[in-house]
Amino acid sequence: MEETSGYKEYVAGLLAGVATVITGHPFDTVKVKLQKHNTVAHGMQYKNGLHCTARIVKIEGVRGLYRGATSSFLGVAFESSLLFGIYSQTKQKLQEGPPNTRPQPQVIIPAAAYGGAIISFVLCPSELVKMQVQGTDSLVPKSGRYSGPIDCALKTMKTEGVPGIFRGGLTTLLRETIGNVVFFSVYEYVRHYMHLQLKTASSDHNYLNDVGIGIVSGGLGGVAFWSSVLPLDVAKTIIQTASDKSSTKNPFQILKSIYGRSGLSGCYTGLGPTIARAFPANAAAIVTWELAAKLLGVERE
């Protein structure tokens, strides 16, 4: 990547975040409800992702699938802008010598981990508010429901102070650091080898090829991300949606408890809608990021 105005990577990342929310938020709503209601000790509330989706649409309409989307748009757009901007800029600074077309683990891993760590401080409060709102339905007593993201944020601040907004911060940090190392590693290697195959097969280069590579590399990167860190996400959901604020915030204790009750499948609660969301949402993010970067004149290796 050549030296360029740093802000362009951040703008492209912001647009990628918008694409992610539009594509993936309904799946995320289903995942949160499954993780919140299906991991408690008193038993299952939803049979599976389809049952959960059907219940939401029946009771709340399609709008129910986009419950909490306001905070998600703000949080994910800002987070995505930071992530892609920080990753690109850090990767550029760590790159030794002239641009190397081969992926370099010693560059990708620290750049992705650094970007993931930074965005965890944005994601933690925005996801807490989003999940509190997403978890509000007929299973929750009216007295415990929130009218929207702002209502949720204000009530949380009033009852718990600033630390309440950052409940689950350590788990978010672990998820984002590990997950983004996996995501960008898979993305960079798949992208590299697909470009090699296309160059071998044909010397022609067009935008359709770039879109196709972006869909596959971004989609597979997203699936790899969530496959590697979903247990941490399950623990984070429980921490951030717990009615008893004094309950443990140690993700490993929570996962140990879930494993004891439900086995490994309990630690992967919500896997179906998560993977169903991961491919299209991350494919949309990568395609949007790469096309926006090109339109803004950012040169990539």
Short description:
The mean pLDDT is 85. With 301 residues, the chain is mostly helical.
Characterization of the model:
The structure is a single chain. It contains 11 helices and no strands. The chain is globular, with a radius of gyration of 20 Å. The longest helix has 35 residues, at 207-241. With 301 residues, it is mainly α.
Question: What is the element layout, followed by pairings?
Answer:
Elements: H1 6-37, H2 49-60, H3 69-94, H4 105-134, H5 149-160, H6 162-165, H7 169-201, H8 207-241, H9 251-262, H10 264-267, H11 271-295
The outline comes out as globular
- Rg over CA atoms, rounded to whole Å, is 20 Å
List SSEs in N-to-C order. Answer: HHHHHHHHHHH
Summed over residues and divided by their number, the pLDDT gives a mean of 85
Number of strands: 0
- The percentage helix is over 70%
Largest sheet: none
Determine the structural class based on helices, strands and strand pairing: mainly alpha
> What's the number of helices?
11
| Poorly predicted spans | none
Q: Strand-residue fraction?
A: under 5%
Between the first and last Cα atoms, what is the distance in angstroms? 5 Å
